[in-house]
Every structure is written in structure tokens, then in C-alpha cells.
Amino acid sequence: MTLRLIVLAIMVIGVGDQGHADQMPPAASYVFGYTDQLSYVGGDTIAFHLSSSEPNVELTISRVGAQAERVHREIGIACTAHPIPDRASSDGCGWPAAWTFTVPDAWKSGYYEVAISSGGDNPAKGSAFFVVRSGDSQPKSTILLQLSTNTYNAYTNWGGHSLYSYHDRDGLQGHQVSFDRPINSQFRNWELPFVRWAESSGYAIDYAVNSDLEFHPEILKDYRLVLSVGHDEYWSSPMRDSLEQFIGDGGNVAFFSGNTCCWQVRSGNNGRTLTSWKQTPNMDPLYRTGDHRLLSTAWSHHLVGRPENELTGVGFLWGGYHRSHGQFMDGSGAFTVHRPDHWLFRGTGLKRGDEFGGNDSIVGYECDGCEMKWVDGLPVPTHADGTPETFQILGTCEARWAPGDSYWYDRFPTDRVGAAVLGVYTSEKGGTVVTAGTTDWAHGLPGGDRAVIQITKNVLDRLGQ
Question: Residue 356 CA to chain centroid, in angstroms?
Fold first, then answer.
């Protein structure tokens, strides 16, 4: 290639602020956006960072709960097309704020969806989201739902990379992802079915995001029960520290989720980036320091020595997949009941050996379990994997890792069959932790499964007081 052609190529591609080639924008009309933070309280200012091929855009903001309620519409926002940096997915877009807005004090805590449009007959469309926390001047619920926003980011490949290789721009796995880019929310997959049912059933719930447990842990003092729903996979050490302190002080937690706290991440740039080396901990820069407690790999990895079982009662190492990834594809999708006299089953009418939840496949996708043995026909934890001494196994359903998943971990037996485990434990000061051990528990709520609904009510009514 001649020097003249090289210069022309650089001019066509463009060069980003960091000296890397910018990515090409879409050929069609487009609008993209993100907010400067994930959560706010009344009186905070939201900065909307937008990029569009059109000179003006409009925003519609709706609170999405039992119903979608439109709370604000702004038209005629002047917008500009900004470059997409080569490292947008890991370092952020760096776009300037196109519009700012102060959160009204009257806005309820909740998940707020932002519809972005260029207007006209065939508009370009984009989306963003943020959460409003309950402010100090507002009445608070006793129940806090922290959304799995770290997981949303981990699976987003906008700008080139996610923490997965299957949809990566170069077929490689990223090791850092930024919130300063458009994020593909997973809220509608798992949390929204729970939220719709809970709010429609009269439960008042306040909202936060994963990183609030790290950067605003003081909010936990206002609540009796903290919820995790769906796919809550990526946790930082400060997040765990905050919630474990909450439990240790007598607070209650319900993990209506699976694959929970599977991977350790490290927050950077004041919470705007996440670092994770996952299956290659020896490539993490911390590996050579000799202090492996914060290695960004599986929490249950022997180098980290802090299995998620110590928090949740269960972990992915002893669970796996059910009706996904080729594992137990003809499985029941249901829990088998082992201890029906426990308060969790009160009002369900379930008996030992009964199954429930199969019609809605509440045991599905990714599942967490614990090492167990069978005594007089009942499963009992061995506690060798970090599962607390007071943990009781109330229900199980078979699960297993996909064969390729275990190759990277030097201590994983490839022929292990695990289980999704529904169970409960109590801390020394009375904090109770319930775990469903499956990502798909909430699917039984809109499905109308009577047992799933009654068990969920039992947890909220007993632990939210």
C-alpha cells in the first residue's frame, strides 16, 4: 500500500482520542445513548450522553413496574454524531452530555426505561435505563431489590467486546467492560416478571443496582430484606462485604436467582468499569502479586478461597445447567420437595417427594447447589464447600456443567452431577438467607404456579417485616 493510500485509509476510518482507529458507525440512521450513573435519588442530575446521525432527538422516560408509567418526555434535544472509539466497550465512549435532567423528588423508587428516538415517520430508535433509589426524605419500604446490572454489562458487546467470546467483534473474550456505552438491559428477562407480580400483589419494593452495594452500602441499614432476582452473576468484593455484614448484623436476604455471585469482578473508574479475567486467572495482573483474594475469577476457585456458598448457601461449582447448554434437556424443570414442614412451604399443601414449578420450568438455564450426602433418604450438606452449618436443603433438581466448562478449572471433576438447591440458613444474629438456586424462579410467578407464589409470599411476609 502506498503512503498516500495509507493516509486516505486513516482519514476514512478516523483516529480516536487514544490513538486507536475509531469504529465505523452504522450505515443507516441511528441514535445511541447512556447515562452517567446507574442509579440516582431525587434531586440528583442525570446526564444523558447521546450520539445520533440526526440533528435532534427526543426522550421518553417511563417507570416500568406493575405497569409502564410515562413520567417525562423531552423533544428537540440537539444531538451530534460522535465517534465510536476502538476501545469503547472497555474504556467507554467518552461522549459529552447532550442533555441533563434533575430527578424530581416525587419520583418513586424503581427501574426507569428511556426510549430515544430521532422522530419522523421512520425514526431511528435507541434505549437506555437508570434506577431511582429511595431518598432520605421519602418513605421507604422494608424490602430492597438490587438489580443485576453487572450481569447486564458483562453480556453487552456494544462497541466490540463483552466478557464472552461468542459474540465478540474479534471472536475474543474481553476482560474489561464499561458502563459508559449503550448497555443491553436484561431487566425484562427475569426481574420484571418478579416486579410485576410483587407490585400487583401489593408489595412495596425499593430499588438499587449491584454497584450500590459497593458505593452506597449505607442504604442497607434502611431495609429488613434484600432481594436478588434472576441472573446475578458478577459481584465485586466490596459488594459481598456489604451484604455479608448486613446478614451478620441480622439482616435477611432472598436469592431468587441462580449462577449468583459466580465471578468476582473489580470495579474501576468510580464504578464505571468492571474487570474480569474469568477462566484465565493467571493472566490477571494480580496473579503475580501472590495475593489472590481479589483475583477476577470464580469466587469458588481455590486460589480465591471465598466460595459463594458462604454468602448464598449454594454455588455454581455444585450446580450447573438444567434444560440448557445440552444438559438435562428433557428434565422436569421442577423442584422435588424434601422437608415440607419447613415454614417456607407453609400454605402450599406440598408433601415430601412432590414436585412443583415444572409447568413454568422454574429450574432452568443456570443453577446453584451444594455438596451433599443422603441420610435416611434426605439430602444433607457436607459443609466442606463453604455452605453454612445451619443450611437446610428443602428442594433439589438435577443439574450439571457442560463438558467444556470444566476444562479450565484444575480441580473440577468432569463427571460430576450436581443439583439446583432450594434452601435456607440463619446467621448467628438471626439474619435469614433463602436461596432458590435457579435463575428462572420468577418465571413461575406470571405463570401462576400456586406453590411458587405461596413460597415467594412466605419469604416476603416473614423476612420483610
Answer: 25
